[in-house]
Amino acid sequence: MTIREIDTVCFVGAGTMGCANSLVAAVAGYNAIIYDISAESLDQVPAKQAEMGAYLVDIGHCSAEELQAATKRISCVSDLATATKDADLVSESVIEELGVKRQVHAQLDEVCPEKTIQTTNTSSMLVSDIEDVVGRGDRFAALHSHLGSPLIDIVRGPRTSPETIDILTRYVESLDCAPLVLKHENRGYVLNALIGPVVTTGLLLVIEGIASKEDVDRAWMLNRGAPMGPFGMMDLFGLNVVYDGWQHRPADPVTDAIRPRIIDLLSGYVERGELGAKTGKGFYDYPDPAFEQAAFLDDTSGISVPHHALTATLIRNGVMLALTDVAEPDEIDRAWTVGMNLDVGPFALLDEMGIDNFLELIDAQPGFMQAAEIAAAEKYLRQREGEMRVSA
Questions:
Q1: For the purposes of burial, counting CB atoms within 10 Å of the CB of 294, is it exposed (0-12), middle (13-18) or buried (19 or more)?
Q2: Sign of the dihedral defined by the CA atoms of residues 312, 221, 237, 348, in that order
Q3: CB 3.0 to 4.6 Å from 211: which of 89, 205, 313, 350, for a disulfide?
Q4: Residues 341-368 as b or e (16 or more Cβ within 10 Å = b)
Q5: pTM, to two decimals
Q6: Comparing C-alpha atoms, which of 248, 269, 138 is closest to residue 203?
Q7: DSSP 3-state assignment of 141?
Q8: Residue 12 has pLDDT above 80, yes or no
Q9: Per residue in 31-88, pLDDT tens?
Q10: What is the secondary structure of 49-96 as a DSSP string?
Q11: Domain ranges of the chain
Q12: How far, in Å, CA of 117 to CA of 105, rounded?
């Protein structure tokens, strides 16, 4: 059921995310208006949503009849003032360039009614990178969706009101999706902040000649029960997207040290147009990539090292998210299990493994964590372990 505060939602950007999110909103009963500056992009909306709608029916999110009714609640508009004149909520999904997003939100702030809640679907920026260009800071937040997953992140900015977070939380629930309200903003939210380092570890294992891409993926698939590994995931994301992410990643000592090697590996694929599943070739050939073949998992001789490295990475980043108070451990696990459709999150995995075994994994990988990080993580985990014993 829809919520009383929201009737009409305007989706700015007719790309993949705008098309997907507007369709989900319309299925839930909301009037969805899609705005884009490109008439060509707007013309492609029906075809994109037909494919997305078939997926929603296949997974049981809605019936064919509900989907047909939903399409009648969707309209495409090429004038921003017209698109937003009745909007209770705006969801922006334009390109990941800060200048563009700031310009768009400044324009939205001018044309939207006073009641409108403005949100950004950015995957890499912070709310505070954008929100100072809007006057309605109390009604501005991140509302970040993950394509193909019910997980939706909600993040307040410096001025976001509790009422806005409450409305957005209930809105997400009305979509039959899973809201995750972060305690404070964090680049990569929770799920991306877990996936990114796992993928990076896989890349470095190959770059340094420690493991093949097949062994990295086999290790992940066998031990996590996942349908694909880090290299299969990158093919799904698009290697150009991964490449662009590394080109524009904020500078820090760790990033600066590994960026040239990762860009060097990815650039060859991008220059050849081998961008992954969407082009028929990336790290694997499509359709029917090697990792989907039954025999792919038979050779387990080279998976021990990548398994330990990937597992340590996942747990380490889960712990750091909790240690920096981005989210509670159970919420971090929920983000992982819902977002990845896997049954074990980093803290559940840690509880199975034990703190001592985790610390041994870390010690076996020099330079993986700084001494101060290890000490802080151990202190936090020992305290959490004690609290769990008391509550039990």
A1: exposed
A2: negative
A3: 205
A4: eeebbbbbbbbeeebeebbebbeeeeeb
A5: 0.92
A6: 269
A7: strand
A8: yes
A9: 999 999 999 999 999 999 999 999 999 999 999 999 999 999 999 999 999 999 999 9
A10: HHHHHHHHHHTTSS-HHHHHHHHTTEEEES-HHHHHTT-SEEEE---S
A11: 8-181, 190-392
A12: 11
Q: For the segment 311-349, what is each residue's pLDDT rounded down to a tens digit?
A: 999 999 999 999 999 999 999 999 999 999 998 999 999
CA distance 33 to 10: 5
Q: What is the pLDDT of residue 366?
A: 67
CATH class of 8-181: alpha beta
52-to-146, 180, 187 alpha-carbon distances in Å: 14, 23, 28
Cα dihedral 334/340/346/348 (nearest 10): 60
Distance CA 70, CA 313 (A): 42
Q: Work out the pLDDT band at 126, boundaries 50, 70, 90.
A: very high
CA 194, CA 214: separation in Å to the nearest integer? Answer: 21
Residues 354 and 205: their CA atoms lie apart, in Å, by 25
**What pLDDT is stored for residue 255 in this prediction?**
82
Q: Model confidence over 158-186: pLDDT tens digits?
A: 999 999 999 999 999 999 999 999 999 99
Cα–Cα distance measured from residue 233 to residue 287, given in angstroms and rounded to the nearest whole number: 14
Structure tokens, 368? 């993986």
Class of domain 190-392: mainly alpha
CB proximity list for 115: less than 8 A, separation 6 or greater = 88
Average pLDDT score over the chain: 95
Confidence class for position 364, pLDDT limits 50, 70, 90:
confident
Which two tokens mark 330?
């159970």
Residue 311 to residues 106, 278, 305, 325, 362, Cα–Cα distance (Å):
43, 29, 10, 22, 10
228: exposed, middle or buried (C-beta count within 10 Å: 0-12, 13-18, 19+)? middle
Buried b (16+ CB within 10 A) or exposed e, 153-175: bbbbbebbbeebbebbbebbebb
